[in-house]
Design brief:
This protein is of the alpha/beta class and about 350 residues long. About 45% of the residues lie in helices and about 20% in strands. The protein has a 6-stranded parallel beta sheet. Strands 7-10-11 form a 3-stranded antiparallel beta sheet. It has a 3-stranded antiparallel beta sheet with strand order 12-13-14.
């Protein structure tokens, strides 16, 4: 065919473009993943490249960032992406330079951080990771698009998001989020197993506050949607308030530590799945009448401290995140929400002290 004449002069991007299905007419988007040679990214990149996250017809320009000692491993990851022959991938760049990775990116997924290991406290993570996210915020501010969608995954993710946004003042605070969809998926899973339903049937569970052991998984507004379209409140379906306030809450709060104890490593597969869920929802929006949970910069809703990155129930339309309003808060929920707000306040103070 004419296309293959002088093929040595054609770029890899040209070749991928030639083989894209004819209905893929959208401009490519630039997606950056940090910590790209790590465990989470290893699962995440497959989902992104396959079209599960940004759409089955959305061409991609991938920028993969990691530290210099990991660039050899990252080359192996790129080989595997090549070997999958994903039609959506227009180009892949591997780099240890954040200024290259973040240049004009549409989405930045900040996975790379010192990981939590068994016995580590959150304060240890904050001490180690604060400088990383300060630096990345500064570089995003200089080279990324001003409407870039930033998801912070590295822990402590709420406060790392706060740091990143603080050092990227030219990018609106609305463009910074942290991952609590993993906690949301965990909570939905516990409810689904308890009620013997599919997790997709469990709607409007809320994760309030910090991605930590103080988070509050709230089912007071949640319901189960039956195959015939009828609904039943989760509290009614479970019919065990003691379990909800006891084992359920504690199990969700401590699930990350339980995974570390079992694997000797932090969550990877489930984290990658949750990242994909988070970004896909941000990209396509929430269903009518439903909300999900994301860590966003607080505007003071529900008595939270303005400026903290706090997980709320959110609705998303046209890529714009709005905190779901006017949900009733009972006394027990108020107490739980205040506890996690206090922890986030303390983390913010510690972070500012470290960075000063």
């Amino acid at each position: 065919p004419e296309f293959f004449k002088n093929s040595s002069e054609r770029s890899k991007s040209d070749c991928y473009s030639f083989f894209l299905p004819t209905n893929m007419t959208q401009d490519p988007i630039a997606v950056c993943v940090t910590g790209a040679a790590g465990q989470i990214a290893y699962s995440l990149l497959f989902s992104i490249a396959r079209g599960d996250v940004f759409g089955s017809d959305q061409p991609l320009l991938l920028s993969l960032l990691d530290i210099p000692p990991m660039l050899g491993v990252l080359q192996g990851v790129i080989m595997e992406l090549d070997d999958c022959s994903f039609p959506l991938i227009k180009s892949v760049v591997a780099t240890a330079d954040p200024a290259v990775a973040f240049k004009d990116c549409d989405a930045a997924i900040l996975v790379g951080a010192i990981p939590r290991r068994e016995g580590m406290q959150r304060s240890d993570l904050l001490q180690k990771n604060a400088q990383i996210f300060k630096s990345q915020g500064e570089i995003l501010d200089k080279v990324a698009k001003k409407d870039v969608k930033v998801l912070v995954v590295g822990n402590p993710s709420n406060t790392n998001t706060l740091i990143t946004s603080f050092y990227a003042p030219s990018i609106p605070k609305s463009q910074f989020t942290c991952l609590t969809h993993l906690d949301l998926n965990r909570a939905r899973g516990f409810i689904a197993r308890r009620c013997n339903v599919n997790p997709v049937q469990v709607k409007n569970v809320i994760i309030w506050g910090n991605h930590s052991a103080t988070q509050y998984p709230d089912v007071s507004h949640a319901y189960i949607e039956n195959p015939d379209g009828t609904r039943i409140n989760v509290t009614e379906a479970v019919s065990d308030g003691a379990w909800i306030k006891g084992d359920f809450v504690k199990s969700v709060q401590s699930r990350g530590a339980a995974v570390i104890k079992a694997r000797k490593l932090s969550s990877a597969l489930s984290a990658a799945k949750a990242i994909g869920d988070h970004m896909r929802t941000w990209w396509v929006g929430t269903a009518e009448g439903e909300f999900c949970s994301m860590g966003v910069v607080s505007d003071g809703s529900y008595g939270t401290t303005p400026g903290l990155v706090y997980s709320f129930p959110v609705v998303i339309k046209g890529g714009v995140i709005s905190i779901a309003q006017d949900l009733s808060i009972d006394e027990y929920s108020r107490e739980m929400m205040d506890v996690t707000n206090q922890e986030l306040t303390q983390e913010k103070e510690a972070a500012m002290s470290i960075l000063s």
